[in-house]
Design goal:
- It is a single chain.
- With 266 residues, the protein is of the alpha+beta class.
- The chain contains 2 helices and 12 strands; from the N terminus they run ααββββββββββββ.
- Strands 1, 2, 4, 6, 7, 9 and 12 form a 7-stranded antiparallel β-sheet that branches. Strands 3, 5, 8, 10 and 11 form a 5-stranded antiparallel β-sheet that branches.
- Strand 6 and strand 7 form a beta hairpin.
- The longest helix is centred in the first third of the chain and has 22 residues.
- The chain is elongated and about 160 Å long.
- 18% of the residues are buried.
Length: 266
């Protein structure tokens, strides 16, 4: 009797144990290779997703206080990436785009190397041709190295004379050393009027109010120095031009009379 009772108790205990195991999820069979999800096991905490990019930026920010978080942007402490900014000049006092101004006319005492001495006159408005200089008073003298003033705008004026850009005249005298004897061809281009004299004789008359006009003449010169005089006047602003060319004997091309051949009248 006792044995029967013991067997019944053991059978009952086994039955209760099997029932409890069937209802629990902790003994559920899970196929190999399938991930364990929170749905399969509500007690399992989800695995946090790691944002690697965010982590990298955080590490960079911690190691570099100037890092902005944008890979292609400059940091707060860096200069902007401006590819249009020109490089700094070796001479900070000189502009990168503006060349030093070279004055056409200079003070004669300050420029002893310049051989052309010109008396400067102010003319009445609407002057139609070169004046009689003997009836005018010169404002001052200015000097040039050559008569090589190409057609250009003129607004710089003259040293020591305020605001004279138009209605003025220049009476220029100088000496020219002819390298050899022979027939020389001279060309005088001017805007406005100009006249050339050599050794007192009028060679080219290009007078009058006009745009750039060129006139040419030939003259025989001996080797050595000759006296030159060029009278020029400028009418209304702003453009001027005054060029004196020569073609020496034996040459087929014309050129400016070089400064080395020009000297002052003593």
């Amino acid at each position: 009797m006792n044995q029967v009772y013991s067997r019944l108790c053991i059978a009952l205990a086994i039955s209760l144990a099997l029932t409890a195991c069937g209802e629990s999820t902790q003994f559920r069979e899970i196929p190999l290779g399938d991930p364990i999800s929170a749905e399969q096991n509500p007690e399992m905490s989800p695995i946090p997703t790691i944002d690697q990019d965010k982590t990298d930026k955080t590490n960079k920010a911690e190691n570099n206080p100037g890092y902005s978080g944008e890979e292609n942007s400059p940091t707060a402490g860096d200069a902007p990436l401006d590819t249009d900014t020109p490089a700094q000049s070796d001479n900070p006092g000189q502009s990168e785009t503006t060349a030093p101004t070279v004055r056409l006319f200079t003070d004669c005492e300050e420029s002893p190397e310049k051989g052309i001495v010109a008396n400067l006159y102010e003319l009445p408005v609407n002057t139609a041709k070169l004046p009689d200089f003997s009836s005018l008073s010169s404002l001052r003298t200015v000097c040039l190295s050559q008569l090589n003033i190409k057609d250009r705008q003129f607004s710089e004026g003259f040293p020591g004379v305020e605001g004279l850009f138009e209605w003025f005249a220049l009476d220029m005298q100088f000496k020219v050393n002819a390298p050899k004897a022979g027939l020389y061809e001279f060309s005088l281009a001017a805007d406005d009027g100009a006249i050339l004299w050599i050794d007192g004789a009028e060679i080219i008359n290009n007078d009058g109010l006009h745009e750039v006009t060129t006139r040419t003449a030939k003259i025989y010169l001996t080797a050595g120095q000759h006296s030159f005089r060029v009278a020029y006047y400028q009418g209304p602003r702003w453009r001027i031009a005054l060029e004196l060319f020569w073609k020496v004997p034996g040459s087929t091309t014309r050129s400016y009379i070089p400064a080395s051949a020009i000297s002052r009248v003593e």
